[in-house]
Amino acid sequence: MILVFIGPPGAGKGTQAKLLSQRMGFLHLSTGDILREAVKKQTPLGINAKEYMDRGELVPDSLIIALIEEHLPEEGGVILDGFPRTLAQAEALDNMLNAKGKKLSKVLVFEIPDEVLIDRLSGRRVCSNCGAVYHIKYNPPRRDGICDLCGGTLVQREDDKESVVRNRLEVYRRQTQPLIDFYKKKGIIYNLDATKGVEELFSEIEGIIKDGG
Ligand code: ADP
Ligand code: AMP
């Protein structure tokens, strides 16, 4: 089963994808996580991607498509989190899957107002060591600034600073939202009220996944 999570930054895609991975065995494929790892290691991809990420712009399609080609597994359940983000990426994904005789199962759209996103992104903290995600109000660590899982230091993502957040929301509206129509035509779209709490939203997603339709 191949699922796509679409939604603006801060909607809770990564949080739900990580839970699905832990509880149901899905592979969580996040282009944002892969890129951040590449930036940290200063690989050629990371060095190239950093300037776009720091500005809240999208990294060029050719780099992202190559990255997915490299990471998409042959078998098993996969959640694509943060990919595709442009029509060119969506078409490339269709071609990649067609070539393997597969197709997308479902596309879940996380719907959420901007005020809630700003609140979520300004309070988001990530572990600089293992990448675990927290929120200072909604999902705080047991000890301030310290990761529960590995003891690493929690930091704010550079692109979660307010000036960059505004641009990321604009980029989402301009470049990614049109994908919703693209997938609507294929009849595989499911809309979620992403303002719900983590567990309530998880149950809803679980219901959608288990529903054969
Ligand atoms: P995305 O992957 O869509 O950018 P995240 O999963 O990183 O979003 O979530 C953004 C922030 O909001 C994080 O700090 C996370 O802990 C918090 N969060 C995620 N889901 C919820 C929720 N349902 N209710 C409240 N806060 C949430
Ligand atoms: P995310 O972690 O999904 O919020 O992504 C962080 C940043 O990585 C984005 O603002 C983009 O700069 C880049 N990025 C992640 N996924 C993609 C993608 N599919 N296409 C282009 N850029 C991406």
What are the defining features of this structure?
8 strands, 213 residues, binds adenosine-5'-diphosphate, binds adenosine monophosphate, alpha/beta, five-stranded parallel β-sheet, Rossmann fold
Describe the structure.
It is a single chain. The protein is built from 9 helices and 8 strands. By secondary structure, it is of the alpha/beta class. The protein has one domain: Rossmann fold, CATH 3.40.50. The longest helix is centred in the last third of the chain and has 15 residues, at 162-176. It has a 5-stranded parallel β-sheet with strand order 2-3-1-4-8. Strands 6-5-7 form a 3-stranded antiparallel β-sheet. The model has no long low-confidence stretch (mean pLDDT 95). The site of adenosine monophosphate has 17 residues, from helix 2 and helix 3.
Strand order of the largest sheet: 2-3-1-4-8
Compute the average pLDDT.
95
Outline the low-pLDDT stretches.
none
Number of separate strands = 8
CATH architecture: 3-Layer(aba) Sandwich
How would the global form be characterised? globular
The name of the CATH superfamily reads P-loop containing nucleotide triphosphate hydrolases
Question: What's the CATH class, please?
Answer: Alpha Beta
Looking at the structure, the CATH topology is Rossmann fold
Please report which band the strand proportion falls in: under 5%, 5-15%, 15-25%, 25-35%, 35-45% or over 45%. 15-25%
Using only C-alpha atoms, the radius of gyration works out to 17 Å
Helix content: 40-55%
What number of structural domains do the residues give? 1
Helix tally equals: 9
**Structure ligands:** adenosine-5'-diphosphate, adenosine monophosphate
Give helix and strand order, one letter per element, not per position.
EHEHHHEHEHEEEHHEH
